[in-house]
Amino acid sequence: MGVFLSYSILRSPLQADAKRSNVAIFDKKGTLLEEFNCSLVGVLRRSPGEEYHAVNEEEFHEFLHREFGFRPALVRVKEFSTDEGLAVHLLPSHYQDYVDNPDSMDEERWGREDLDHYPLLIQSWIDRGDFVLDWGNDYFMDATGEVNSS
Q1: Looking at the structure, do residues 117 and 74 belong to the same domain, yes or no?
Q2: How far is CA 142 from CA 54, 117, 139, in A?
């Protein structure tokens, strides 16, 4: 069993604030087992190293290692969605809409030429190993976990 923290995908503590962090537990096959909030009140005392960080990243990793055995690493997970709003999807919603019902796509909005290319675009997305991290915004990620766009 491994520990995956929602913030670790983005490589900065965007999901952690000074009061709590969202923690998700996955098995070795990448299936979500459990999700919970972890209180950080009184736990983290060092000031953030960067102004855009909510917590001191080194201290946060030390806490996570001590409490959960967490070690930063690339983690492969299956699609999931949590009550807190954290989710990973294989496809962006407009691609998924096309897969679910190609005839329902608004040709005026998307354009016939773009819609004609959707099968190739979707296959290319899958072949590259891209995915979507949904955490208050849709982050389009590559196979290494780097954000391509949002």
Answers
A1: no
A2: 25, 20, 10
Q: Residue 4: name the closest of 67, 59, 74 by CA.
A: 74
Domain count, the chain: 2
User: Closest by alpha carbon to 24, among 7, 4, 48, 49?
Assistant: 4
**In this predicted structure, what is the pLDDT of residue 64?**
86
| Burial bucket for residue 112 (CB in 10 Å: 0-12, 13-18, 19+) | exposed
Please state the length of the chain: 150
87: three-class secondary structure by DSSP: strand
Residue 83 included in any domain: no
Identify the residue whose tokens are 């949904």: 134
pLDDT in tens, 24-48: 888 888 888 888 878 887 888 888 8
Domain that holds residue 71: 1-78
67 & 117 share domain: no
> Same domain for 69 and 108?
no
Backbone angles phi, psi at 37, to 5 degrees: -95, 140
Structure tokens at 77: 């997970």
Tokens of 16: 């952690």
Whether residue 34 is contained in a domain is answered as yes
**Residue 86 C-beta-side C-alpha neighbours within 13 Å:** 24
Residues 103 and 46 reside in one and the same domain: no
